Amino acid sequence: MAFVKSGWLLRQSTILKRWKKNWFDLWSDGHLIYYDDQTRHSVEDKIHMPVDCINIRIGHECWDIQPPDGKPKDCMLQIVCRDGKTISLCAESTDDCLAWKFTLQDSRTNTTYGCGPYSGAYPPGTQVAYATNGQAYAVPYQYPYAGLYGQQPTNQVIIRERYRDSDSDLALGMLAGAATGMALGSLFWVF
After folding, report:
1. Beta-strand (E) ranges in 53-188?
2. 139-163 mean pLDDT
3. Residue 87 backbone phi and psi in degrees, to 5
4. Cα(109)–Cα(166) distance, integer angstroms
């Protein structure tokens, strides 16, 4: 995995609402991890942007927080997560804030590849691709059979489709079928 972006950001604590300086790493698989310092020894928290993040706000869109002393509102950045958690951040400058926003937005909306969370469910070396809605939908892996004549292995992709489990569609279909049957039944009684 490679870093997409790294740097210092101020983060507002959840309980005391104090601003603390944290080192942030955004990985190419969409994981945003923040640490106490640049040595990366103590992980504070991590967010998987394609799965956990539902919105990114900047500047005056961050209406519910005040920036730290000496910083304008244009340096503010908020990551809104699916579980209701909001991470409030402040960049060094407006340009840095925009760079973080675009990078985070890109990692959230683009399909990314990373190590799968399905330990042992797929062959070794499996990777899971995430769609923009966070759904894991494809599992590419290197096919282990080289062929009868030593051909180079090919990439195989297994597609897992989402199943639609909607009882309302079934009920609506049964209602439409019953209405059609009653209409045709009354028509045949005439003849």
Report:
1. 53-58, 76-81, 86-90, 112-115, 127-130, 136-142, 155-159
2. 48
3. -105, 115
4. 27
